[in-house]
User: Fold this.
Amino acid sequence: MHVDVRRYRSLVALVLVSFTAESRALAKLDVVPFDELLKRASLIVTARSTEAAMDGFGRGHAVLAIDRVIRGHYSGDTIRLEWQGREDDNAVREVGRGYLLFLRGGAARYDAAIHGVSYWLLATGPDGQEMVEYRYPTTMVQVPAELISRISPPAGTGDCDLETILLDSIIHSIKATAPADNRLKLPARGRSVGAWRLRARAAA
Assistant:
């Protein structure tokens, strides 16, 4: 997909600012299968940050307005997240940014489903579609390759491709994965990886 130079550069600038802030604060994280992240998340929502604060020791909190509940139940309009200043905290640092949040907990408090990799930044692509910025630390979650898209820069700019995941595609996969068994179903295939393996073995 080739895009307008100005829109592409705006998206690149947004990604680079976010990447710099995260990479300075994060230690080395372990690779996590996407199914495992889904298994641990009792609440998955999209939300937009309305408040973000951090002290000199890296401790902080954020308040986010809920846009959409994808999995689980949440009756409030906002949610508060806190972090303790660990070097691998996946902190919410900017006001006005969209997030796809994978959370665990309930009632009075929610935390990251898996520390360091559970708050996925969203951006609006050049075509107006909302997407996940698939860069560190989100890349530490192994998502199916079928979900990852590339945005090619305009010819002659010398810029690199950007890896993204369409928000609609990742939501489709989350909803197609039953919380009880967490067998991921890819949008294009409409069937679980586990079921495909069973059929392959039977055929053999």
Summary: Confidence is low (pLDDT under 50) at residues 11-26, 185-204.
